[in-house]
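Dear colleagues,

As part of the handover before I leave the project, I'm documenting each prediction I ran so the next person doesn't have to rerun anything. This entry is a single chain, and its sequence is reproduced below.
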Amino acid sequence: MTDTNNIPPSNGGDVESYTTPGMKNATLNYALYLLGFLIPLVPIVGLVFAYMSRGKAGEAVDTHYTFQIRTFWIGLVASFIAFLLMFVLIGFLVFFAIAVWMVVRCVKGIMASSNNQPIKDPQTYLF
């Protein structure tokens, strides 16, 4: 039997650092966007986190939230266009291009947030 008096209480610091506005939360949002390729509704959670956290963690982190919000909405609109283009058989190629675009943006964001760097141009349509 172990002595439980010597075990420090857990305050959930690790989980809390990912759910409060900051670079770890921005990294989590990028991961949620990438997880959306397997579970389609998960990026909506990342979008909600980005909207709720924007303006609360400093200018550098806000560039990530702006970048994430734009990534979601541009990707959604482009996916709708790709769906319509499936009727003329080029939509599949457009879907592939959107997937590559999304992965590149998320990887770029993860790399920047891991190094505590802002996104240089969060308003861009490309990367």
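The mean pLDDT is 88. The helical segments are 13-19, 23-35, 42-53, 59-85, 91-114.

All the best with the project,
I.
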